Amino acid sequence: MEDIEDLLAGGVGGAPPGFRLPLNAVGINPKTNKSKRSISKQDQITTASNRDSLAPPSLTIPGTQTIYIKTFGCSHNQSDSEYMAGQLTAFGYALTEVPEDADLWLINTCTVKSPSQSAMSTLITRGRSGKKPLVIAGCVPQGSRDLKELEGVSVVGVQQIDRVVEIVEETLKGHEVRLLTRKTLPALDLPKVRRNNFIEILPINVGCLGACTYCKTKHARGHLGSYTVDSLVERVRTVISEGVKEIWLSSEDTGAYGRDIGVNLPVLLNAIVKELPSDQSTMLRIGMTNPPYILEHLKEIAAVLRHPCVYTFLHVPVQSGSDSVLTAMNREYTASEFRTVVDTLTELVPGMQIATDIICGFPGETDEDFSQTVELIKDYKFPQVHISQFYPRPGTPAAKMKKVLSKIVKQRSRELTSVFEAFAPYTGMEGREERIWITEVAADGIHLVGHTKGYIQVLVTGPESMLGSSAMARITSVGRWSVFGEVIETFSSANRETEAKEKAKPPCSSNVSTCETCACSAESCCGEERSGEACNISENISKQDNDQKVKSKKEGKEIQEVVVPRSNVANWGFIDKALVCGVFVSSLTLFVLFISVAIRVLSRQ
Required co-factor (predicted)? Predict the structure, then answer.
């Protein structure tokens, strides 16, 4: 198998983020006989043989069409789709979740497992039947560019998402576009339409340093490529200002971050947590990391996980509890080293929650190997275990290994699932009060979904206005996959900001001229009941006035003191000044008329 990093590039130029290239920048080829068409270039645009007729007039005006986007796979793929959606909407395209209403389908694919690729093939067939122009993005076209299903459709690689507008426009014109060249990482400040307004999926790197024998994703995402710390910190600042309440760090291997640019994951994490609001209104979730690359940083990562604004949750895939299977997978760690990761984080981080992955029936897995995996899962009783059967992916070394019988693979998968589902990880939580962060509506349409600091899912009832807020919840019941609670207190970011500003104000003093700069609130400071007591509104109350008040009180007279804040003429607006001038001129005019009438009357007499 040839290394896709070394394939001949058809051109690495590109437009600035979010801008369309002129037509000739990607080289439109004239329509030719399909059998004579060159397919050696990775980046090309040709006229598709199945689109001989001219496009309808309505499809010839760029930015007037409706796009349907379907995403398969991981959070990194979801982030890519959000970036592509953002660029399309920025250029006027509308988005729809109804495939039949769309003028073009954009399908972002996943190559991890056979089922997801099969779903892609089914969707492509459906789109062709409906005569929909198709653009296929993601890991499938990048890692398997010669698939039969990709013939006659436009394809865009994982590092070409910043050219999606151009690709869509050409596809709508009837051209077949192929942009698969590897180039610099897409910019992080591209327009973005989040699927959830409160969650930012932030890719910190692409690719990985591993070479797992079963993995097809490496063929698509390639070797490790990390964004700089400064660019990621700047993105964090931006999304917080936009109202994001959860930031998910995403990549093919978070733990490997920065090794290609001379930094590491703890350096990035410490830089990011400095930007998070101190009121815990925005939380950070660290993405999936493989054991080899965090073993040397366990204490530093544990310190970050203890931070109030970081979820005490980590996804660490083990894949098997057998060292012989891990060696065949080329996972670069042992079961003992995985246990070290889990034991250390559990010891150093209170309330630590760890999720893991298992592949059942990897080639060569014996009954003894599988029993070691079961033992590992039983020992730790992980609250989340993603169990999958082995799927041979074309072009991977594992696809050529001797397979375990299908019925044995299925039996092992069922057995491990039964073991896992017998756990009750949330027993004992009932009655506890937990702070939760509420970010989405549950699938039942009734509950809102919040997460504890350990990222345990809590289902609560309440208005959708609570989305994006933090609250204290009392756990009322526990289930196998989540817990139920009732909100007993809601934290308002606005209120906390106001309180912080009030605390920062100077104390009341005799030289304070207005209540707006006083540590007292306007109501308590300038109200009728406490006027003149909490703070001096007027610094120029004359001694004569004070003496008169004292004299009146001695005589038993009740005085209701009304304090009128003095206005500052320098702060008057144009309208205020105009009204005063108008009143003055009117008064002067009346006075002159009065004098004139008086003079006439006197002269007649």
Answer: [4Fe-4S] cluster
- In 180-312, the DSSP E strands lie at 199-203, 205-206, 225-226, 246-250, 283-285
Question: How far is 295 from 530, CA to CA, in rounded Å?
Answer: 63
How far is 321 from 585, CA to CA, in rounded Å?
93
Name residue, tokens 């004569």: 544
In sequence order, the 6+-apart residues with CB closer than 8 A to the CB of 172 are: 55, 59, 60, 62, 65, 103, 104, 133
Rounded-to-integer distance, Cα 172 and Cα 556, Å? 90
User: pTM of the predicted model, to two decimals?
Assistant: 0.72
- The 8-class DSSP code of residue 37 comes to -
- The dihedral through the CA atoms of 30, 35, 40, 42 has a sign that is positive
Residues 6+ apart with CB under 8 A from 147: 140, 141
Q: Enter the DSSP assignment of 236.
A: H
DSSP 469-520: -EEEEEEEEE-SS-EEEEEEEEE-HHHHHHHHHHHHSPPP-TT---GGGSSS
The number of beta carbons lying within 10 Å of the beta carbon of residue 354 is: 20
Distance CA(410)–CA(418), nearest Å, equals: 12
In order along the chain (605 residues), what is the average pLDDT of each group of 10 residues? 30 38 34 38 49 48 88 87 93 92 90 75 87 88 78 85 90 87 83 93 90 84 90 97 96 92 96 96 95 93 97 97 97 96 97 96 97 98 95 90 95 97 94 96 94 97 94 95 94 52 40 34 35 36 42 40 42 60 76 79 72
Nearest to 155 by CA among 124, 115, 191: 124
User: Which residues on neighbouring strands pair with residue 460, listed in sequence order?
Assistant: 448
Q: CA 489 → CA 87, 351, 434, distances in Å?
A: 39, 22, 11
> Distance between CA 157 and CA 144 in Å, rounded?
11
